[in-house]
Design a protein that fits this description.
It is a single chain. The protein has 103 residues and is an alpha+beta fold. The chain starts with 8 loop residues before the first strand and ends in a 7-residue tail after the last helix. A hairpin with an 8-residue loop joins strand 2 and strand 3. The mean pLDDT is 92. Helix content is 17%, strand content 31%. It contains three helices and four strands, in the order E-H-E-E-E-H-H. It is flat and about 65 Å long. It has a domain of 66 residues. Pfam families: OrtA. InterPro entries: OrtA. This is 2-amino-4-ketopentanoate thiolase alpha subunit.
Length: 103
């Protein structure tokens, strides 16, 4: 039995440009890695993880890529907190003579 059936919400991955195909105008560290994308949509046929599949996006685009997730969650983050930035708001209030209750 396949991992995912036709119509299942999935995520695909595809390499758009290999490092050697990228623009010479990019910074060196950027040129060293491929340009990739991940996209979510509905499977157009049954498939297993790792298979090359076609999906249909919410706006009707049909796109091919490697099946990497089944029923992927929506998640978004801003990365780990930067300790040096955490106290800026409180320090600025003190400098500007703002709230006295800030410790």
């Amino acid at each position: 039995m396949p991992d995912a059936l036709k119509g299942t919400w999935v995520q695909i991955h595809k390499v758009v440009l290999k490092p050697e195909e990228r623009s010479a105008r990019l910074p060196d560290d950027t040129k060293k890695v491929p340009l990739e994308f991940r996209l979510k949509g509905f499977l157009t046929h049954d498939a297993n993880l790792g298979d090359e599949v076609e999906i249909e996006t919410l706006i009707g685009r049909k796109v091919r890529g490697k099946l990497v997730k089944i029923n992927p969650m929506y998640d978004h983050g801003f990365g780990r907190p930067v300790p040096e930035l955490l106290s800026i708001g409180m320090e600025l209030r003190k400098i500007l003579g703002g709230e006295d209750s800030v410790s």
